[in-house]
Specification:
This is Ribose transport system substrate-binding protein. Its main location: other. Belongs to the bacterial solute-binding protein 2 family. By secondary structure, the chain is an alpha/beta fold. It folds into two domains: 174 residues, Rossmann fold (3-Layer(aba) Sandwich); 135 residues, 3-Layer(aba) Sandwich (Rossmann fold). It contains eleven helices and twelve strands. The strands form two sheets. Strands 2-1-3-4-5-11 form a six-stranded parallel β-sheet, sandwiched between helices. The protein has a six-stranded mixed β-sheet with strand order 7-6-8-9-10-12, sandwiched between helices.
C-alpha cells in the first residue's frame, strides 16, 4: 500500500524538475521455457522485458481468460509491472487478458477483484496494494474455484493463492550489503558511516530488505549508522536524502532501496555538492543504469525485476490450462518462485541496459 509522504515545507521537486525518469527494473524473469504460439515463432511485441517463448507449452491450447489487478501506476516499477503483464498476454492467441482499473485504494481493489470473480475468469493475477488487507479476497477467489497467482506482495494465508511469484527482497539487501561491505573493507575503512534509505518502513518487503542488508554488513563487521524511509516517491526521496546529508557531515556509503525514489535522492546529493561517498540503488531502473554508466556517486543497483509480471502471466495460463512447466519434471506449476537479485555495476551495465524502461 502506497503511503502518503509526510508533510514537508517548501516546494517539492517533480519528476520533470528532477529531469530523471524514475523506476525500477531488473534482470531476470522466470526460466520456464516456452515458445510462441504464432506460426512463425515470433515472440511478438517490442518489449525486451517480456519473456521469450519456447517449448510445447506455448502451442495454442484451451482458451482462457486471465484477470489482472494491480495498484495504480504512480511509480515506475508498478507501471512496468502492468506493461509486462499486458505484453506477455498478447503473445498468446489463446489468452484473453482482462485487467481492472488500477487503484491505490484497498476497498476499490477488493471490489475490482470481486468483479473478476463474478465474471468467472479462469485465473487471477493479483499484485495487492497490501497482501494482508487483500488476503480475504484472494481466499474468496480460491474458494470459488478461481486459482490466484499472487504477484510480489504475498498473501499471508497460503490458502489465498495457488502460486506466488516475486523478487527476493532479503536477497536485495544481501547483494547491496556485500557490495558496500566489500568495498569499504577493501578500502580499509574501520568505522564507516553507512546510511540506508528505505521504501515504506511498515511493509514486510522493506523489512526483509533491511534485514538482508544488516546481515550482509555484519559479515564485514559493519552496521547501519542511520536509516529513514522515503515511501517510494521522488519527493520523499529528495527530502529524506537532504535531511540525512545535513545530519551526517561525513558519509561513506548509502543504500537506497528503490531507484524511483532514487531520482529524488540523487537530486539532493547533486544539490549538496557532496561526493565523499558512494551509493547503491535498488531495483535496476533505466535512469539508474545511465547514472552508473556515466560514473558518479551511484556505482551499482541491485535488481528487483518487473519481468516477474510476465512470468506471472505465463504461469497463470499454464495453471488455467492444467499444464506444468516444460523445463520441470513435475506435472504442476510450483507453488512459489523467487527471482534472484543481481548486482548491476559499470562492468556489466551494458548487458542490462536493454532491459531498461522509461517511467
Amino acid at each position: 500500500m502506497r503511503e502518503q509522504s509526510p508533510r514537508q515545507q517548501g516546494p517539492r521537486p517533480s519528476r520533470r524538475h528532477l529531469l530523471l525518469g524514475g523506476a525500477a527494473l531488473a534482470a531476470g524473469g522466470l526460466a520456464a521455457a516456452c515458445t510462441s504460439n504464432t506460426e512463425d515463432g515470433d515472440s511478438g511485441g517490442g518489449n525486451p522485458q517480456a519473456g521469450t517463448l519456447a517449448g510445447d507449452n506455448d502451442k495454442a491450447g484451451k482458451q482462457v481468460t486471465i484477470g489482472f489487478s494491480a495498484p495504480a501506476a504512480d511509480h515506475g516499477w508498478i507501471a512496468a509491472i502492468a506493461k509486462n503483464a499486458e505484453e506477455q498476454a498478447k503473445k498468446y492467441s489463446d489468452v484473453t487478458f482482462k485487467p481492472v482499473e488500477p487503484t491505490n485504494d484497498i476497498n476499490q481493489q477488493i471490489s475490482a477483484v470481486e468483479s473478476l470473480i463474478e465474471a468467472k475468469v479462469d485465473v487471477l493475477v493479483i499484485l495487492p496494494n497490501d497482501g494482508e488487507q487483500l488476503n480475504q479476497v484472494g481466499r474468496k477467489a480460491m474458494d470459488a474455484g478461481v486459482p490466484v497467482v499472487n504477484l510480489d506482495r504475498v498473501f499471508p494465508d497460503h490458502l489465498s493463492y495457488r502460486t506466488w511469484v516475486g523478487g527476493d527482497n532479503y536477497g536485495m539487501g544481501v547483494s547491496a550489503g556485500h557490495y558496500i561491505g566489500k568495498k569499504l573493507k577493501d578500502k580499509g575503512v574501520a568505522d564507516p558511516v553507512i546510511v540506508e534509505i528505505q521504501g515504506i518502513a511498515t511493509l514486510p518487503l522493506t523489512q526483509d530488505r533491511s534485514k538482508g542488508f544488516a546481515d550482509a554488513l555484519k559479515t564485514y563487521g559493519f552496521e547501519v549508522t542511520a536509516k529513514q524511509d522515503a515511501k517510494f516517491t521522488v519527493e520523499s526521496g529528495n527530502q529524506v536524502a537532504s535531511n540525512l546529508l545535513q545530519a551526517h557531515k561525513k558519509i561513506d556509503a548509502i543504500w537506497n532501496h528503490d531507484d524511483d525514489q532514487g531520482v529524488g535522492v540523487l537530486a539532493a546529493i547533486k544539490q549538496s555538492g557532496r561526493d565523499e561517498f558512494f551509493m547503491v540503488g535498488g531495483a535496476g531502473s533505466a535512469n539508474a543504469m545511465r547514472e552508473i554508466k556515466a560514473g558518479g556517486v551511484l556505482e551499482a543497483t541491485v535488481t528487483y525485476s518487473p519481468t516477474m509480471a510476465s512470468s506471472a502471466i505465463k504461469l497463470a495460463r499454464l495453471i488455467a490450462q492444467g499444464k506444468g512447466m516444460s523445463d520441470l519434471v513435475e506435472l504442476q506449476v510450483p507453488q512459489s518462485i523467487t527471482l534472484a537479485s543481481e548486482t548491476i555495476t559499470k562492468d556489466n551495465v551494458d548487458r542490462y541496459m536493454p532491459l531498461g524502461f522509461e517511467s
